[in-house]
Known about the structure:
Layout: H1 3-37, H2 85-90
Amino acid sequence: MSSDDRKRAYRMDLLVASAMVAAGLVIFGLSVARLAAAHNPQMAQATQPLQSTPGAETKPSAPAEPVTTGARPNEIPPEPARPDADAQKAGAAPALPPAPAEKVAAPIKDR
């Protein structure tokens, strides 16, 4: 490829790239103008509004909520999952099993 051909190809590529940038800026400007001109934006509704079923006036809407006091039962006192060292020496067993040992692989060899 000669020097003149390379210059011509470079100029053509530069012209195409400039045209693409200009077209993108025009589309961006038109989009911004359209958004700015929308004084009455319309919202889309994803679902249809709820309609009452026939005979809903005579049926109860939901079952009655069970009555709870919100108080914690106090028959069984709470215990920690892992008792402290003094309690373990006294014979208290932990509520959870011991954690598994870490698995260690062989070291990665350098290439």
